[in-house]
Amino acid sequence: MPTHAAASSVTVHLLRHGQVHNPDRIVYGRLPEFHLSDLGHAMAREAAGALAQRSENGSRLVYLASSPLTRTLETAAPVAEELGLRIHPDERLIEPSNHFEGLHVDRSQLGRVSHWPYMLNPLRPSWGEPYRRQAARMAEAVLDAGRRAVEAGGDGAEAVLVSHQLPIWMARRSAEGKFLPHDPRSRQCNLASLTSLVFDDIHAGLRPRVIYSEPAAHLYPGVNQLPGS
């Protein structure tokens, strides 16, 4: 008789990076050397503390991966320290490409004819990496991390992936079976927030449950954010 693998439950936490030092408010995208601000470091420590509390309460957090960009690696650092884990850089978690990278985008910038071809299709979107591609690579990274967590920690293990607002939002909308095109103002993915995907069986191909939390919420007042950063 054929044998079936035992169900393996796992939780994959998608952690958005903390606030970035960006006084000129440019679209920094994949540009190097954009570091967390002092407040951003404090946000990262709050998220790390929340994850450490989970560990103290019995959760087995056994795998940590991060987008290779500076701001995500700096956010992952206190998590690694608190949980005693090595950071695995993962290109699949990176910020999407963006035509407007390096620019401060305002009305005068958007009025330039040279940008118009990149604004023709907001449903794709035409200014950068397609939403579908972002969702696909994030899903691949999430499933891979979940399986690695189960291999390392067994049934019920947990993983942490440090990424960026838009890829995390794409992963969530895809997991919930929602349309990927959206109003950026509707994103529930604040700085240093945790979007936790709970799989009852990582091998079954079923949609996960989504739990959202904001460990650094008390640090948000007065913070201006750029959508997608």
From TrEMBL:
<dbReference type="InterPro" id="IPR013078">
    <property type="entry name" value="His_Pase_superF_clade-1"/>
</dbReference>
<protein>
    <submittedName>
        <fullName>Histidine phosphatase family protein</fullName>
    </submittedName>
</protein>
<dbReference type="GO" id="GO:0005737">
    <property type="term" value="C:cytoplasm"/>
</dbReference>
<dbReference type="InterPro" id="IPR029033">
    <property type="entry name" value="His_PPase_superfam"/>
</dbReference>
<dbReference type="GO" id="GO:0016791">
    <property type="term" value="F:phosphatase activity"/>
</dbReference>
<dbReference type="InterPro" id="IPR050275">
    <property type="entry name" value="PGM_Phosphatase"/>
</dbReference>
<dbReference type="Pfam" id="PF00300">
    <property type="entry name" value="His_Phos_1"/>
</dbReference>
